[in-house]
Amino acid sequence: MKVGIAQTKAIIGDIEANIANHKKWIDCALSEKVDLIFFPELSLTGYEPRLADTWAMRADDLRWNEFQTISDLHTIVIGVGAPTRSEEGVCISMIIFQPNQAKQMYSKQILHADEYPYFVKGNSQLLLTIKDVKIAPAICYESLQPEHAEAANKLGTMLYLASVAKSKVGVEKATVHYSAIAKKYSMPVLMSNSVGPCDTFESIGQSSVWDGNGTLLASLDVEGEGILFFEPIAKQIDKIQS
Q1: Is the pTM of this model over 0.85?
Q2: pLDDT tens per residue across span 86-112
Q3: Which of 59, 88, 182, 215 is the most buried (most CB within 10 A)?
Q4: 85 φ, ψ (degrees, to nearest 5)
Q5: Paired residues of 97 in beta bridges
């Protein structure tokens, strides 16, 4: 199995332009024969909590169809980030498209205090099984909470996938925490971070992969877009950086 971890810069609030950019990086991933590719937190809108209600997408939004078509045609799993509207309110979600299957949504279960005025929590953990590998998604703040990784481990998680929007300080904390949980649970940790303006901070990329020993295998830089390619079984890693 080959995983692509994308690092992208959102045009704030321009969903159509961001979809086009996602498709560009998916095409790049397809040329590298990846089985799945995941994008940063709220990658289709940018991380702007105060405006998320305006941009929130419904489950039946026709714009999802572009990703489903690519997934079906090329047998690739795609995970993108967007605010989604539920009966309870707006969620921070990862929308996952699998070949010839109904899309799935995973919504952030543990919100930061600053997010409570704008979002509601998800209520269950999603576990994906791709080529016999169990993958647990996590979204930013919750991925730094020990109880989230512990719960994922109890489900038999083999890859922990953190989709984030993190500042310099956030990445510094994440680097220590992800290394520790990777080693503790013997599970590789993959972080997909954005670059560029986000809410009140600047997201600084450095998307990274840690192996099951907690060793940092590779990172992207702090400004450019790109993809990390990771093959867990072969323990091989490569990258493309713009």
Answers
A1: yes
A2: 999 999 999 999 999 999 999 999 999
A3: 182
A4: -100, 125
A5: 78
